[in-house]
Design goal:
The complex is a heterodimer. Chain A contains 4 helices and 16 strands. Chain A has helices spanning 38-44, 53-68, 86-95, 115-120; strands at 4-8, 11-16, 20-23, 28-31, 72-75, 102-106, 123-126, 129-131, 134-136, 149-152, 157-163, 167-176, 180-182, 193-194, 203-207, 210-213. In chain A, strands 8, 9, 10, 11, 12, 13, 14, 15 and 16 form a 9-stranded mixed β-sheet that branches. In chain A, a hairpin with a 3-residue loop joins β11 and β12 (167-176). The two termini of chain A are 21 Å apart. By secondary structure, chain B is of the alpha/beta class. Chain B contains 31 helices and 27 strands. In chain B, α15 (402-414) packs parallel to α26. Chain B starts with 5 loop residues before the first helix and ends with a helix. The chains are: A alpha/beta, B alpha/beta.
Chain lengths: 215, 817
């Protein structure tokens, strides 16, 4: 796995092909749209999706944590998919190994569990979060909101490239818009939507084990 | 037998009063039926095939109750009549009822389909009619009811109508499973009969219907031939007629004289979007048709469709533009002409459509073939020849459809529950599941009870409960959801379309609507509509006055050419080349052939033509095997793979029914020297598996599978929002199964369907063997030829690459930058 270090807004952003950003100056790992508990939610309703997805997603997060040794983890919304279920309990066990790292969740439209549950899981919940004038909010903003820059999730962005001989390729991506950057969905049991970026805005696609700047 | 049967005499007298005489095949069928046999009646539409079986059951009834058959009522369900189309049920029911009335037999005839009102269903539950006409889906719904066996207590006969329509599809599998349960309930008491038009594999159709272990079924053939007159509508100026296209609007003015000279005309198009366009264009061309012209396709509101069918029946309409939705059954006596727009792609389908006109015994069916692009005229000539030689396609039965079996087991689980051993015996005696293994069976049961491989104790999967070897679903919520779900064989989510002010128009694919913005106009059911918003799975619209509107394209509209027709096509090209043909179509096309010959070459039957052309798009390689789109798709991928091993290269691939195209950004290293090797059958199976984008094909197949197996949550009516957290696309499910549960049988089924049904490996092998003994002709035309043009402009595209992902991205970036 090779991360791409992107110098932007006078900060260093490590874009990891494992679908997260490490913010060097803040020692923070940033990710979005985990949708933990989604598979269990389906299975509870009699829809037999595979049961092992949550382990894989959390194993990836574990690898990121042991690699970057962050002080905090910022989740830009949709950390959990729906109501509480046993996968949430699985997370609780998993969480114990990283008890000194703080988890900051910026609430997304899927984060609907009771406050007490987040408390038990040692997750700090925020409607939005701002550090060094960098703003974090789940749903992307279109206009300048007064902060230096904003990071969002929600869209599960993918980028489509076209070339000679009518070739076409579609990959998940990090997008840096004029005012707002959008993170790829971290969870594997999530779909993606095509992004229609402005021509000059940076886009980094996740190509297997590497990150490539596509525009 | 005739002498001894009192019932037979009653029927003969009745017919005699109407100055009618039974056909020989009807008497054969009655005789076989009275002997207690099962089998298939093979007869064309319009010759009383219904009565060949229905009256058989009536004769047997009169024989069994000679004294009191005229007043014996409330006898319970005797005869179950399965029909593929709801639209057919009404017509059938009427015909049966009037016969019963005239015969003085007080049987009730009921209809059970998605449209049957709740009150009627409840009444049927109290007292079943003696005859029940039902769709395969509704039969399964009956099996999903508590205490369903009591419904079938007196059942002795099942007739499957239009069996040729069902056999090649998963609805056919639903029939097989339904029959297996009814046989289990009624044992030797049950007689099963099919009614089928002629297909290439009628013997196999019998085996599928009766099960592979049944040995004394028989086929009763009506030796009646329908007279069909095929006439091509030849463009006035063939030189100016487009080389490509699939709409045929340019030819529309030439269809008006046909409509005017006929009493009623059916205009068959191949896709729903095309039918919408034709409807609009016809009204523009001849405003006098307003009020006498109607539109009929599968996305139009059921009520409107029924109205159109009734109006056709009563001779009110001058013409109807339709799709395969009117292929089947119903007797439209006033129809005396049929226009087929574009190639029907198969002989059987063409015959069926032709048969929609001249529905009376002995009448001539008139069908006009209207080409949508120039080369299609050759297909008309090929169709004519194929019809003369009776080259009718086979319908391949579906094998090991795990998705349908899962749905069926759930159906039994929500009604009375089922015993594993009993159902296992019934299922493995069907044709579809004759090769199912015990491991597969156990996997299916565990998929329903534990959700497949459960990991650890924190799993909360819930669906079917297991009690020893007894399986039952005790959740009322899930039972309700399953009943709503039975019969959803449609894959893409369809949304209802309604006016803002109320009033239902039809349904439309979600994928199409998602590309529209509010304010855009589109066409449905012949109306221009402005899209306002989507709310609760319903698209709200208002009337639009916009001149420009988008016509929705529907998936699955493209039907591939059958191999029979492909062979005929190659022969016709050969004939055209000889320049002494008598076919008016080929004579008309002579200027086009001359141009093709001048620019490139016309392949003889023992030749394979390859054209290499460079344009500003890149380097094109066109190959013409004339084997149909599906075979071409696979062959193109195989060729691309083999070339890509010579050097790293990326292709985009396109195909139509005549040939395929490889397009690359660099010259394609195919030469006279290596061509034969590139088409060899060596290592075919292994290279197929690596070359064809089997994953993508399987992903497409998985859409249906996921829906049928109950993995796609469709929500409850009116309760859409609350369940949004259970929404997931089939493509996403496919990904997670592939990554986390690669042994999943549904996934395996998707790959099997891709290999066997789509890739048609056997047919591909035959084609390659043919090429091996053919002469390969490579030309390098300076411009696009009449052959290659339609492929280039009018096709679906795929990609095949041997370059590294990173390299491809970098190349794409450089090109765009």
């Amino acid at each position: 796995m090779v991360a791409e270090i992107f110098h932007f807004q006078e900060q260093h952003w490590h874009l990891s092909p494992q679908r997260a950003i490490f913010w060097e100056e803040e020692k923070a790992l940033i990710l979005s749209d985990l949708h933990l508990g989604k598979a269990a939610h389906f299975r509870k309703a009699g829809i037999a999706v595979p049961a092992g997805i949550v382990q894989e997603d959390l194993f990836r997060l574990q690898q990121l944590i042991t690699h970057y040794l962050p002080d905090r983890i910022i989740i830009v919304g949709d950390m959990f998919h729906s109501r509480e279920n046993n996968e949430v309990q699985y997370f609780k066990l998993w969480r114990q190994q990283f008890s000194r790292i703080s988890f900051d969740l910026v609430k997304g439209n899927h984060d609907i569990m009771a406050d007490a549950v987040y408390e038990q899981l040692q997750i700090n919940v925020h409607p939005a979060l701002t550090l060094r004038n960098i703003h974090f909010i789940h749903e992307p903003c279109e206009d300048n909101n007064g902060f230096a820059y904003t990071f969002s999730g929600h869209l599960h962005p993918a980028f489509v490239m076209h070339g000679a001989g009518r070739q076409r390729l579609r990959l998940p991506c990090f997008y840096f818009g004029r005012h707002c950057g959008i993170l790829p969905a971290f969870g594997h049991f999530t779909g993606s939507a095509n992004l229609d970026p402005e021509e000059r805005d940076p886009v980094f696609v996740i190509a297997g084990k590497s990150i490539i700047r596509a525009q | 037998m005739q002498q001894r049967s009192g019932g037979w005499k009653v029927i003969n007298n009745w017919l005699g009063e109407k100055e009618l005489k039974p056909f020989k095949f009807q008497e054969d069928a009655w005789k076989a039926y009275l002997q207690g046999k099962s089998g298939i009646v093979n007869a064309p539409t319009g010759f009383g095939k219904t009565f060949s079986l229905f009256l058989g059951a009536v004769i047997a009834w009169i024989d069994a109750h000679p004294k009191d058959y005229t007043h014996k009522t409330k006898n319970g369900l005797q005869l179950l009549w399965i029909t593929p189309l709801r639209a057919l049920a009404k017509d059938l029911g009427r015909a049966m009822e009037s016969a019963l009335q005239e015969l003085n037999v007080p049987w009730q005839v009921g209809i059970r389909s998605g449209d049957t009102p709740v009150a009627t269903r409840a009444a049927q539950k109290k007292q079943m009619p003696e005859v029940l006409i039902i769709t395969p889906e509704s039969l399964h719904l009956l099996l999903a009811q508590k205490e369903y066996p009591s419904v079938f207590k007196h059942l002795h006969t099942v007739v499957v109508d239009e069996w040729h329509e069902l056999i090649g599809s998963k609805r056919g599998v639903m029939v097989e499973l339904g029959l297996s349960r009814l046989r289990g309930l009624r044992q030797d008491q049950l007689k099963v009969w099919g009614i089928s038009a002629t297909i290439g594999n009628l013997d196999e159709a019998l085996e599928v219907l009766l099960g592979p272990y049944h040995s004394d079924g028989l086929i009763i053939r009506a030796k009646l031939k329908k007279n069909i007159a095929l006439k091509s509508v030849i463009p006035h100026e063939i030189e100016n007629y487009p080389w490509a296209g699939h709409l045929g609007i340019k030819m529309l003015p030439q269809s008006l004289p046909i409509i005017n000279d006929s009493q009623t005309t059916l205009i068959f198009t191949n896709t729903r979007s095309q039918s919408e366009l034709w409807y609009q264009a016809l009204l523009r061309e001849d405003p006098m048709l307003a009020g006498a012209l109607a539109l009929h396709h599968g996305s139009i509101d059921m009520e409107l469709r029924i109205w159109v069918e009734e109006a056709l029946h009563n001779g009110i309409l001058k013409a109807v533009v339709c799709t395969a939705s009117l292929d089947l059954g119903v007797d439209f006596r006033p129809v005396d002409s049929v226009i087929q727009v574009g190639s029907p792609k198969g002989v059987a389908r063409f015959l069926q459509r032709a048969g929609r006109s001249g529905h009376q015994p002995g009448a001539i069916s008139k069908i006009f073939f209207l080409p949508t692009h120039a080369l299609e005229l050759v297909e008309a000539a090929a169709l004519k020849a194929a019809m003369e030689q009776d080259l009718i396609e086979s319908r391949m039965p579906v094998l090991l459809a795990y998705d349908v079996l899962l749905q069926y087991l759930m159906t039994l689980a929500v009604s009375d529950g089922f015993h594993g051993n009993e159902i296992w015996e019934e299922v493995r005696h069907t044709f579809c599941y004759q090769h199912i293994t015990e491991d597969d069976w156990q996997w299916l049961l565990s998929f329903l009870t534990t959700g497949g491989e459960a990991l650890g104790s924190y799993d909360e999967f819930k669906k079917v409960e297991r009690e020893g070897n007894f399986y039952i679903c005790r959740s009322r919520m899930m039972a309700m959801r399953h009943r709503l779900h039975i019969g959803t064989i449609v894959s893409d989510a369809m949304l209802k379309v309604k006016f803002m002010s109320g009033g239902y128009i039809g349904v439309i694919e979600e994928g199409f609507i998602s590309r529209l913005s509010p304010g855009d106009s589109f066409t449905l059911a012949g109306r221009n509509l402005e899209f306002i918003l989507i709310k609760d799975m319903t698209v709200l619209v208002r009337k639009s006055n916009s001149k420009r509107s988008i016509v929705p394209s529907y998936q699955g509209g493209r039907i591939p050419l059958s191999s029979n027709l492909g062979r005929m096509l190659r022969e016709k090209f050969n004939e055209a080349l000889s320049r002494n043909t008598k076919d008016p179509e080929l004579i008309a096309l002579q200027p086009l052939f001359n141009l093709q010959e001048e620019l490139s070459h016309i392949p003889k039957a023992n030749e394979l033509l390859i054209e290499q052309i460079a344009t500003k798009d890149g380097y094109h390689l066109f190959v013409y095997p004339f084997e149909g789109r599906l075979v071409h798709e696979v062959m193109a991928a195989l060729l691309a793979y083999r070339i890509s091993r010579i050097q790293p290269i990326t292709f985009s691939i396109a195909m139509n029914d005549y040939g395929f195209e490889l397009l690359s950004d660099q010259p394609i290293p195919l030469t006279a020297e290596n061509a034969k090797q590139l088409f060899s059958t060596e290592n075919l199976l292994m290279e197929l598996q690596t070359s064809v984008n089997a994953t993508e094909m399987a992903r497409r197949k998985f859409r249906d599978i996921a829906v049928i197996a109950g993995l796609i949550f469709q929500g409850y009516p009116g309760k859409h929002k609350a369940n949004r957290h259970l929404q997931s696309s089939a493509s996403l499910l496919f990904n997670v199964f592939k990554d986390y549960d690669p042994q999943n049988l549904l996934l395996k089924q998707a790959f099997n369907e891709a290999f066997f049904y789509q890739m048609e490996e056997a047919r591909l092998r035959e084609t390659l063997e043919r090429i091996a003994v053919s002469r390969i002709v490579i030309t390098t035309p300076q411009k696009l030829t009449p052959f290659c043009f339609p492929i280039k402009v009018d096709s679906l595209r795929d990609t095949m690459t041997s370059e590294k992902l990173e390299d491809r991205i970098k190349k794409l970036i450089t090109v765009n930058g």
